[in-house]
Amino acid sequence: MSNTRGEQFANYEDIVYSVSIFSTKYSILLLILRVFCSVKRNVGHWLCQGLIVANAMFYLAFFFVPIFQCSPRTKIWTPEEPGRCLDVDALYLASATFNVVSDIAMLSVPIYLIWNLQMSVQRKIGVSAIFATGALACIASILRLVYRVILTQTDDYSYVKFQGVLWAIAEIACGLLCSCLVVLPRLYQHLASITPHKGDSATLARAMADQNTPEPQSKRDWIQLQDRNDGSLPSPPSEA
Protein backbone atom coordinates (compact mmCIF):
# COMPACT_ATOMS: atom_id res chain seq x y z
CA MET A 1 0.00 0.00 0.00
CA SER A 2 1.38 3.40 -0.99
CA ASN A 3 1.79 6.23 1.51
CA THR A 4 -1.05 8.12 -0.14
CA ARG A 5 -3.45 5.20 0.16
CA GLY A 6 -2.24 4.53 3.69
CA GLU A 7 -2.90 8.11 4.78
CA GLN A 8 -6.36 7.96 3.22
CA PHE A 9 -7.14 4.78 5.10
CA ALA A 10 -5.83 6.21 8.37
CA ASN A 11 -7.97 9.33 7.95
CA TYR A 12 -11.09 7.27 7.30
CA GLU A 13 -10.28 5.17 10.36
CA ASP A 14 -10.08 8.29 12.53
CA ILE A 15 -13.54 9.33 11.32
CA VAL A 16 -15.14 5.91 11.83
CA TYR A 17 -13.39 5.41 15.17
CA SER A 18 -15.32 8.17 16.94
CA VAL A 19 -18.66 6.70 15.85
CA SER A 20 -17.68 3.10 16.61
CA ILE A 21 -16.13 3.68 20.03
CA PHE A 22 -18.99 5.90 21.18
CA SER A 23 -21.59 3.36 20.04
CA THR A 24 -19.73 0.61 21.91
CA LYS A 25 -19.39 2.63 25.11
CA TYR A 26 -22.98 3.83 24.92
CA SER A 27 -24.29 0.25 24.66
CA ILE A 28 -22.17 -0.82 27.65
CA LEU A 29 -23.38 2.11 29.77
CA LEU A 30 -27.01 1.35 28.88
CA LEU A 31 -26.39 -2.26 29.90
CA ILE A 32 -25.01 -1.13 33.27
CA LEU A 33 -28.05 1.12 33.78
CA ARG A 34 -30.43 -1.73 32.96
CA VAL A 35 -28.70 -4.25 35.21
CA PHE A 36 -27.89 -2.12 38.26
CA CYS A 37 -30.03 1.02 38.12
CA SER A 38 -33.41 -0.06 36.74
CA VAL A 39 -35.22 0.21 40.09
CA LYS A 40 -33.96 3.48 41.53
CA ARG A 41 -31.65 6.34 40.64
CA ASN A 42 -28.60 5.60 42.76
CA VAL A 43 -25.01 6.78 42.47
CA GLY A 44 -24.38 4.39 39.60
CA HIS A 45 -27.26 5.91 37.64
CA TRP A 46 -25.80 9.42 37.76
CA LEU A 47 -22.28 8.19 37.06
CA CYS A 48 -23.47 6.38 33.93
CA GLN A 49 -25.52 9.37 32.80
CA GLY A 50 -22.51 11.64 33.29
CA LEU A 51 -20.29 9.27 31.29
CA ILE A 52 -22.86 9.11 28.48
CA VAL A 53 -23.02 12.91 28.21
CA ALA A 54 -19.22 13.32 28.43
CA ASN A 55 -18.55 10.66 25.81
CA ALA A 56 -21.24 12.00 23.48
CA MET A 57 -19.90 15.56 23.57
CA PHE A 58 -16.26 14.52 23.26
CA TYR A 59 -16.61 12.05 20.40
CA LEU A 60 -19.03 14.31 18.55
CA ALA A 61 -16.39 17.05 18.58
CA PHE A 62 -13.59 14.70 17.53
CA PHE A 63 -15.73 13.24 14.76
CA PHE A 64 -15.22 16.49 12.81
CA VAL A 65 -11.49 16.90 13.51
CA PRO A 66 -10.23 14.41 10.87
CA ILE A 67 -12.83 15.68 8.40
CA PHE A 68 -11.81 19.35 8.52
CA GLN A 69 -8.18 19.10 9.60
CA CYS A 70 -6.96 20.19 6.15
CA SER A 71 -8.23 22.46 3.41
CA PRO A 72 -8.52 21.01 0.85
CA ARG A 73 -9.10 17.54 2.34
CA THR A 74 -6.79 15.89 -0.18
CA LYS A 75 -3.86 17.61 1.52
CA ILE A 76 -4.26 15.12 4.40
CA TRP A 77 -2.81 12.32 2.26
CA THR A 78 -0.84 14.49 -0.17
CA PRO A 79 1.18 16.88 2.05
CA GLU A 80 2.94 18.50 -0.92
CA GLU A 81 -0.38 19.84 -2.21
CA PRO A 82 -0.90 23.58 -1.55
CA GLY A 83 -3.28 24.41 1.29
CA ARG A 84 -3.29 24.58 5.07
CA CYS A 85 -3.79 22.07 7.92
CA LEU A 86 -4.47 22.23 11.63
CA ASP A 87 -1.87 20.97 14.09
CA VAL A 88 -3.87 17.95 15.23
CA ASP A 89 -1.15 16.07 17.16
CA ALA A 90 -2.12 17.68 20.47
CA LEU A 91 -5.81 17.05 19.77
CA TYR A 92 -5.25 13.38 19.02
CA LEU A 93 -3.18 13.00 22.20
CA ALA A 94 -6.02 14.57 24.16
CA SER A 95 -8.49 12.20 22.49
CA ALA A 96 -6.42 9.12 23.32
CA THR A 97 -5.96 10.30 26.93
CA PHE A 98 -9.68 10.91 27.39
CA ASN A 99 -10.34 7.49 25.93
CA VAL A 100 -8.14 5.80 28.53
CA VAL A 101 -9.72 7.75 31.39
CA SER A 102 -13.29 6.97 30.25
CA ASP A 103 -12.45 3.28 29.80
CA ILE A 104 -11.12 3.04 33.35
CA ALA A 105 -14.15 4.93 34.69
CA MET A 106 -16.55 2.62 32.84
CA LEU A 107 -14.72 -0.41 34.24
CA SER A 108 -14.84 0.96 37.78
CA VAL A 109 -18.58 1.78 37.91
CA PRO A 110 -19.96 -1.79 37.62
CA ILE A 111 -17.28 -3.18 39.94
CA TYR A 112 -18.24 -0.58 42.56
CA LEU A 113 -21.95 -1.36 42.18
CA ILE A 114 -21.40 -5.14 42.36
CA TRP A 115 -19.52 -4.94 45.65
CA ASN A 116 -22.35 -2.89 47.17
CA LEU A 117 -24.97 -5.54 46.37
CA GLN A 118 -26.36 -7.97 48.92
CA MET A 119 -24.90 -11.24 47.63
CA SER A 120 -22.23 -13.73 48.59
CA VAL A 121 -18.57 -12.86 48.09
CA GLN A 122 -18.15 -15.80 45.72
CA ARG A 123 -20.93 -14.53 43.49
CA LYS A 124 -19.55 -10.99 43.61
CA ILE A 125 -16.20 -12.27 42.40
CA GLY A 126 -17.85 -14.20 39.57
CA VAL A 127 -19.91 -11.25 38.35
CA SER A 128 -16.93 -8.90 38.72
CA ALA A 129 -14.81 -11.25 36.61
CA ILE A 130 -17.30 -10.91 33.74
CA PHE A 131 -17.12 -7.12 33.79
CA ALA A 132 -13.36 -7.25 34.37
CA THR A 133 -12.95 -8.42 30.78
CA GLY A 134 -13.31 -4.71 30.03
CA ALA A 135 -9.73 -4.40 31.27
CA LEU A 136 -8.69 -5.74 27.86
CA ALA A 137 -10.23 -2.65 26.28
CA CYS A 138 -8.35 -0.47 28.78
CA ILE A 139 -5.06 -2.14 27.85
CA ALA A 140 -5.76 -1.63 24.15
CA SER A 141 -6.61 2.05 24.67
CA ILE A 142 -3.42 2.57 26.72
CA LEU A 143 -1.32 1.01 23.95
CA ARG A 144 -3.09 3.21 21.41
CA LEU A 145 -2.14 6.24 23.53
CA VAL A 146 1.47 5.03 23.62
CA TYR A 147 1.58 4.86 19.83
CA ARG A 148 0.00 8.31 19.62
CA VAL A 149 2.88 9.67 21.69
CA ILE A 150 5.45 7.82 19.57
CA LEU A 151 3.77 9.17 16.47
CA THR A 152 4.77 12.73 17.37
CA GLN A 153 8.46 11.77 17.66
CA THR A 154 9.11 9.20 14.92
CA ASP A 155 10.17 9.43 11.31
CA ASP A 156 8.47 6.14 10.40
CA TYR A 157 5.02 7.70 10.45
CA SER A 158 3.17 5.05 8.44
CA TYR A 159 4.29 2.08 10.55
CA VAL A 160 3.53 3.72 13.90
CA LYS A 161 0.22 5.08 12.64
CA PHE A 162 -0.99 1.65 11.59
CA GLN A 163 0.07 0.12 14.89
CA GLY A 164 -2.22 2.64 16.56
CA VAL A 165 -5.01 1.75 14.13
CA LEU A 166 -4.68 -1.94 15.00
CA TRP A 167 -4.98 -1.20 18.72
CA ALA A 168 -8.01 1.01 18.06
CA ILE A 169 -9.71 -1.92 16.33
CA ALA A 170 -8.71 -4.21 19.22
CA GLU A 171 -10.19 -1.76 21.73
CA ILE A 172 -13.57 -1.74 19.98
CA ALA A 173 -13.55 -5.54 19.66
CA CYS A 174 -12.78 -5.95 23.38
CA GLY A 175 -15.59 -3.55 24.27
CA LEU A 176 -18.09 -5.56 22.21
CA LEU A 177 -16.81 -8.78 23.77
CA CYS A 178 -17.28 -7.37 27.27
CA SER A 179 -20.87 -6.32 26.58
CA CYS A 180 -21.70 -9.77 25.15
CA LEU A 181 -20.11 -11.76 27.99
CA VAL A 182 -22.51 -10.21 30.50
CA VAL A 183 -25.52 -11.93 28.89
CA LEU A 184 -23.84 -15.27 28.15
CA PRO A 185 -24.82 -16.86 31.52
CA ARG A 186 -28.50 -16.15 30.79
CA LEU A 187 -28.10 -17.61 27.29
CA TYR A 188 -26.49 -20.73 28.77
CA GLN A 189 -29.37 -21.15 31.24
CA HIS A 190 -31.89 -20.80 28.43
CA LEU A 191 -30.15 -23.37 26.24
CA ALA A 192 -29.79 -25.77 29.19
CA SER A 193 -33.51 -25.49 29.93
CA ILE A 194 -34.56 -26.49 26.41
CA THR A 195 -31.88 -29.14 25.80
CA PRO A 196 -32.58 -32.60 27.31
CA HIS A 197 -29.82 -34.34 29.22
CA LYS A 198 -28.57 -37.77 28.28
CA GLY A 199 -30.30 -39.37 31.26
CA ASP A 200 -33.60 -37.86 30.23
CA SER A 201 -33.59 -39.29 26.69
CA ALA A 202 -35.63 -42.39 27.63
CA THR A 203 -38.11 -40.28 29.56
CA LEU A 204 -38.42 -37.88 26.65
CA ALA A 205 -39.00 -40.78 24.22
CA ARG A 206 -41.73 -42.24 26.43
CA ALA A 207 -43.38 -38.85 26.78
CA MET A 208 -43.42 -38.38 23.00
CA ALA A 209 -44.82 -41.90 22.50
CA ASP A 210 -47.58 -41.30 25.06
CA GLN A 211 -48.41 -38.02 23.38
CA ASN A 212 -48.85 -39.71 19.98
CA THR A 213 -50.94 -42.65 21.36
CA PRO A 214 -54.69 -41.97 21.31
CA GLU A 215 -56.50 -42.33 24.61
CA PRO A 216 -58.52 -45.59 24.91
CA GLN A 217 -62.25 -45.12 24.69
CA SER A 218 -64.53 -46.43 27.39
CA LYS A 219 -66.53 -49.51 26.63
CA ARG A 220 -69.65 -47.52 26.00
CA ASP A 221 -69.97 -43.80 25.46
CA TRP A 222 -73.30 -42.44 26.50
CA ILE A 223 -74.63 -39.09 25.51
CA GLN A 224 -77.74 -38.19 27.36
CA LEU A 225 -80.25 -36.51 25.13
CA GLN A 226 -83.41 -34.93 26.31
CA ASP A 227 -86.52 -36.70 25.10
CA ARG A 228 -88.43 -34.27 22.97
CA ASN A 229 -91.80 -35.73 23.92
CA ASP A 230 -91.76 -35.99 27.69
CA GLY A 231 -88.55 -34.12 28.59
CA SER A 232 -87.20 -37.06 30.60
CA LEU A 233 -83.57 -38.15 30.41
CA PRO A 234 -83.07 -41.85 29.66
CA SER A 235 -80.65 -43.66 31.92
CA PRO A 236 -77.97 -45.92 30.45
CA PRO A 237 -78.78 -49.64 30.48
CA SER A 238 -77.14 -51.76 33.13
CA GLU A 239 -74.05 -53.77 32.30
CA ALA A 240 -74.71 -57.45 31.53
TrEMBL record:
Q: Does the keyword Transmembrane helix apply?
A: yes
Q: Where is the Rhodopsin domain?
A: 11-189
- Provide the alphabetized UniProt keywords: Membrane, Transmembrane, Transmembrane helix
Repeat is among the record's keywords: no
Q: Where is the composition biased (Basic and acidic residues)?
A: 217-230
Membrane-spanning residues: 15-36, 48-68, 90-115, 127-147, 167-188
UniProt topology in membrane: Multi-pass membrane protein
Gene Ontology cellular-component terms for this entry are: membrane
InterPro entries in the record:
Rhodopsin_dom_fungi, SAT4-like
Query: Where in the cell does this protein reside?
Result: Membrane
Q: Which domain of life is it from?
A: Eukaryota
* Positions of the UniProt region annotated as Disordered: 206-240
| Homology family | Belongs to the SAT4 family.
The protein in question is named: Rhodopsin domain-containing protein
Species the sequence originates in: Imshaugia aleurites
